Amino acid sequence: MLLEWKSQSKRKPLVIKGCRQCGKTSSVLAFAKENYKHIIYIDFHEHPNYKELFDGDLDVSTITLNITIKIPDAQFVAGETCLILDEIQDCPNARASLKFFALDGRFDVISTGSLLGVSGYKPVGEWSNASIPVGFEEIVTMYPMDFEEWLWANKVRPEHFEYLQRCFERQEPVNEAIHQRMRELLLKYVIVGGMPEVVSTFLETNDMNRVQKLQRFIIEAYKTDMIKYAPSHSKPLIRECFESIPTQLARENKKFTYSLIRKNARANQFRGSLQWIEEAGIIRRCYNLNITELPLDGNAIKDTFKVYMADIGLLVSMFEQGTAWSIMQGNLFAFKGAIFENLIADILGKMGRKLYYFKKNSGLEIDFVMRYKGECWPLECKANTGNAKSLRTVLNHPEHYHVNHAIKLGDYNIGYNNSVLTLPLYMAFMLTEY
Length: 434
Fold this sequence. Notes:
By secondary structure, the chain is α/β, with parallel strands linked by helices. The chain is 41% helix and 17% strand. A hairpin with a 5-residue loop joins β8 (355-359) and β9. It starts with a helix and ends in a 10-residue tail after the last strand.
């Protein structure tokens, strides 16, 4: 993505947004070191006084002069310098200056932010003289490491990916040795997740205590952001909303319910708080559908939804000590369904898919519904094996549900029977076709 941006002849300043600790800064610095002779790195979170560099006039010559006075080693050379503005949400004037860097065109600018796009993450007064440079920046979203990248990091070889792809396409069972290895890696991914520093710590130490300590540090950093950046009246509401997520998922009916946040809570109290957490990249919504037919977004019920953590490892870290061991041993009983549903939400979400499900008052419920091969496909997720009564009901009545095929993910090998494609959970990342 970064190389593609740099290859553009008239590239705009790049803005990379994403949740905290998802690898934005390390990725940008590594890219800059390989592609630029001069790098100027400014972190507004670590050095708040650097915000002064963008006070006053925002023309490029003034800004570069200010920077070279403040940072004597800084060198601005046309076509050879990359200016990196980290945690740019802390300096609204720096964000506004991107327009002038775009018009000037001499220097490449890459900015990163953990809370870009979040509503009201600074007191109004701090935004009074700044504006978003609409049309003068290119915005991309970075996610934590996905399951496929996790497999690469665990030295799954290209020929193994090719073998799995052939099995998937031909609907042939996976060799038992490879199948068991993939099952093991999947369970570890459930616990570790995809936050880059967490993954690195696991691969270097194989120490789950250190992994979970780091995950809990990230969770606490999220809560700190809620206190630091959220509007004053929303701070306690956002935190309460966030801390209710494990309880929301623990219920058999996982529809997000505001009264679980606080007794007698109403949607109009917490709607903005939930949106804040979503825009920060911490959670994903999964919307119920009126009917199982395309277009899915057009049939979504916007006020009926589930909420999943964007990273499965962070969800597991929010539970009590010992949950990771229970996952590896398969001893989660009824709650394992919620964790493995969140696993599939993690995998599909990091693929860029919007999330949908289907539930009727009669009790019929399909875990996920997706566009696949140009059609609407229900997708059921089972932590182990098990029947899928709702899936069969939907398939048996195409005149009502407009569905001809379905996918069942679980602790299975590959198979196909009665219009149902059965896949092991670890193959969810291969459902790339739209």
